[in-house]
Structure formats: C-alpha cells, structure tokens
Amino acid sequence: MMFSTSADATISAHGESGLIQCIENWLGPVNPPSPHGIGDDCALIIDPASRPSLLTTDSLSLGRHFHLWTPPEKAGAKLIKRNLSDIAAMGGQPGPAVLALLCGPDLCTDWLKAFFDGIRNTCLAYELPLVGGDITQTDNGQFSAVLTLTGQAEKPLLRKTAAAGDALFVTGSLGGSILGKHLDFIPRIKEGQWLAGRSDCSALIDLTDGLAKDLPAIIPEGSVAALQLDRIPLSQAARKLSEETGKTALEHACTDGEDYELLFAVNQKTAVNDFAEDWLSRFPDLTLSCLGHIQLSDGKSGIIDALTGDALPWLDGYEHFSNQ
Amino acid sequence: MMFSTSADATISAHGESGLIQCIENWLGPVNPPSPHGIGDDCALIIDPASRPSLLTTDSLSLGRHFHLWTPPEKAGAKLIKRNLSDIAAMGGQPGPAVLALLCGPDLCTDWLKAFFDGIRNTCLAYELPLVGGDITQTDNGQFSAVLTLTGQAEKPLLRKTAAAGDALFVTGSLGGSILGKHLDFIPRIKEGQWLAGRSDCSALIDLTDGLAKDLPAIIPEGSVAALQLDRIPLSQAARKLSEETGKTALEHACTDGEDYELLFAVNQKTAVNDFAEDWLSRFPDLTLSCLGHIQLSDGKSGIIDALTGDALPWLDGYEHFSNQ
Description:
The structure is a homodimer.
Chain A: H1 15-27, E1 43-45, E2 53-61, H2 72-88, E3 93-103, H3 109-125, E4 130-137, E5 143-152, E6 167-171, H4 181-184, H5 189-196, E7 201-206, H6 211-214, E8 223-227, H7 236-245, H8 249-255, E9 262-266, H9 272-282, E10 288-296, E11 302-305
Parallel strand pairs in A: 3-4, 8-11
Antiparallel strand pairs in A: 2-5, 3-5, 6-9, 6-10, 7-9, 8-10
C-alpha cells in the first residue's frame, strides 16, 4: 500500500525531523556522519584528487517511472540506477549524491522504508554515499524523488566527438523494457570506465529514450548513422511485446525507451573484429553488437538503412511533453 | 496564467527537446557550452583547486513555496536563493548547479519562460553556472523544481561546533516572512564568507524554519541558549502580522519560517562589542543583534529566557509533515 487515509501509517505521524531520523536509520552506513552526510546545511565533500567532477540529476515519479504496484525496493533502486547510467555514459566513477523527495503526507511509512531499502542496497553495491537532501510536502497521493549524483572521470567520454568512419556499437539487447528491464537493468559503470580508458572510443551515450532518438546525439553534423538493421540486437521482451502491439520487434528495439544500455563509437584505427575480441575477453557475459558506421551525409540526415540508403521509418523515441 | 487548457500555450506544444532548447535560450550565458553545461549525460565540472566541495539540494513547489498568483520571476529567483542560503550557511562560495523540473503538460510556456528569467537573473547576479538538469512530466496543474547547488569552502562553518560561553548573533530582523520576504530575501553569501574567514565564529546556520526550531541545531549537548528576549529583532512584518493573528510579534519572530537570515555563535575570545563593531564596519547596512549566550545546562534544554530561566513557550518552528 503506497498511500493511506490512516494517519498513523503515514509519514505525517513522524513530523519532518522524525522522518529525517527514519531516513538516517534506513540509510545506515550509506549516509556518512555529518558534515559529510545528512545533518548540516550542505554536505561537505572532500575531493581526494582534483580530477574533473561530474554532476547529474534524474527524477523518479509515481505514474511515470513506476506505479502503485511496483515493489518499492525496485523503485528506489531505479532512481539510483538511472543516475548511475548517466555517470556510466561519461565513463565516470560515481561519487556522493543528494536526494530530494516530494511527497504527499498520506505516504505510508512502510512503503517509504522499503523504497529506501532499494536506495541503500544499490548505494552499497556501488559504494555510493548519499550525503544529504530535502523533503517537500505535496498533495495527497503524489510521490516524486530527484537524485543528484556527482562523479569523477579522468578522461570523460562525450557525445559530440565521433567522426565519419567510426563504427557504432551497442551493449546488451534492445526494446520491450516496459516488461521488466526498466526496473531490473544494470547500469554499465564498469563498461563505461573501460571504454574511457581506451584511446579508440570516440563517443558514448546511454540509451534512455530509444536508439532512434538517442543515436543522433552522437552523430556529428554532416554525417549519418548507416545501420545494418539485422544487427540491431532484439531483446526477448521486444519480441514478446511485438506479439501484443502488432509493431515489429525491430521497431520496439529502435523506439522503446529505458534500455539503459551503452551506445558508442569506435574510431577506424581499431578494426571492428579486434574491438569485439577485446570486449569479449573483458566482458564475456554482456553481448556487444556492431550496428554499422558513421558516414558522411549525402543530404540524408539522422539514421539510414545501410542496405537501401533509406531513412529509418521511426525517427523518434519516447518524446516527453508531446501532444502529437 | 500558470496552467492552460489551450495546448498551444503550454509546454506540450514543444516536446521535450524543444523545451530544452527553450530553456537553453532562456538561460543564455548562465548555461555554459557542452560538456560544461546542458547537452551531455552529465555536466563536466573542472575544479580549479582541490578545496572541499559543498553540495546542497532544495525544492520549490507550487502551493507550498509559491502560489498561482506569485510572479514567476520571483518563484524562479526563490529557488536559487533558497539554495544559496544553504551555501551561505557554510561560509561557502556557490558553484555549478543542476535543475530538475517536475511539471504538468498544461504548464504555460510563457509562465515557464518568466520563471527562468528569475533563475537566469539570479544566477547571473551570483555568477552561478546552471550546468544541466532533468524534466519529468507529471499530472496537469502540478509544478515542482529541485535545484542542486555545489560550492567551495576553504574553511566551512558547521553547526555542531559551538561551545558554552559563546555569544549568539542573528542578522537582519525576524518574523512575518509570508508577507513578502520569503520571496524578496537576500541570501547572506558575503556575510557567511566573512564569518568563515574569522577564527572566532564557532557555528553558523541559516534560519529557514524559525529561530525556535533552528537555534537548537547549533547548541551543543549539555547546554542551552539563554536569550534576552528584548534583543530578538522584530521585523515590521512580524508586527503587522501580529495585528491580524493575535499572536505577539515576538512569537512570530521566533516561530515563523523563511527568514533566511544567518544565526551564528562567536566564541568568548572576542568581546561582543568588538565583534559588533567589526560587523558594522564591514556590513553597515545589515543589522546585527546579539541575542544572548550559550550556557551549560542545569537540566533545562533548548532555549531559555535569560532573565527568568524559563523555557521558551514556543518550542517549534514550522514542522513539515506534522499532523498535530
């Protein structure tokens, strides 16, 4: 039960300071002692080196990113992992995080505790300190959480640095995330760091809105992505969803959001097969697919079918705030 | 008009990428070029020195921190200033920030633009880069924003470091913020930095939930704050509100939230008069009041009237999520 009309079962029975005390307890060792964690106006972060810092923020909202029937532990874990995926997409190492909650006073304490179980366990797994936050009361029945995550990257991998001739790779398989992976995905932190440590990875992004929408972000101006459509890795979930929706599994793989896989470019100095071999020896359990190449544009834009030269029929992934 | 049923007037007419483009335009020079601002998975922050970093997050919610009739510029400015006040309360220098928006698709674009006018102008005034963020769609009629602000502090001032014998000071005047100051306050950044540069300031906090609730946070265990109640600086607004509510102006000054003034302790090695003179020469336009002293407790707790030894009758400031 997420919301309740029985006040004693809700966070309103605790008051704010009691609620913060609960959260400190729920977080356990993930929340360092003040001033490095909850308890002062700001969290004090000592940067051991003076490497470039990363800063990212991502939200989790009831009705959008999870539902009343979602296990709260998985919702809490998802909030952390969404942000971790952004750090992975820079090839970074995650660091201290802060959390803002916006929730109705009828939120059940037990539900919130379980939500923090998911947060704590995920933070522990990634050795991530959660160093502070904010709680704001909204109307009954509402719940949103915003995590801001810092990180460090010796050599951060950016989006806009690929070139014509580079090969395009994607990890894992794509599509149908709504059937479960949107909760159970693994942020590709180790893989992102490994890519950042190589000199041949020229651009990196994580797939959150779907291949068709996210891929153009790493294609330089004047170029297109020429994809061999039969190499796009279709997930089991994409095939299953396809039976229900009447869309092809390929369309699901190209347009469904929340894959949280890495999409990246590798420059020509490394042969595709050599790169794939290196990958296999380092990450034998995570499929890698070469989707095609970046090539100079002849007027086409975005993504084309390498066989026919035609533009991909599905140009957009998930579009927020669209009334079309 | 904040919300509209006419889709063309709302953010849903833009789609997410269009909306981000709008925001980049609205932010102007406050948003650095990618990868140091909006445009990649994370914002890349180069820390020029390796001084301790600060990280804080604070929300702004429709119906809680502002209302439909609040000028949107002031709402945007308030979001930034709330966070700045936390950096001020550590004696820090603000740095890059990220912003998460949670809003209904019926939010009017013109309203949001004006909201960002307030954000931009405030960021410019404090030389604050806004380096990234997130937008999440919620139900119609809702609007919340969460800002996470980084900062640097050579010698951050904490809460728990005061001692018995220290004098207690507060800037400005207190109470009745709801009549206007909750929007028009000035975060005490310069003052906080000046305090952090002295060796005699032993603890610092900003007043957000009211003197009665915030003061105990800087009183060490086994001590009380003995206040001379006639020295608590009553604002004009506290006096005015008192006429409407029937409470005394003093009660308003002690229990109203959102003063955003600095409350701090100064150790005994500096005489109260000497400190006040130093303050006057540095900040001639901002009133400083010595409220009393921290003294060893004889069983009392929290805050007492220095004349009578009685506990203050109003023990709590604004309490979120309380059903009492």
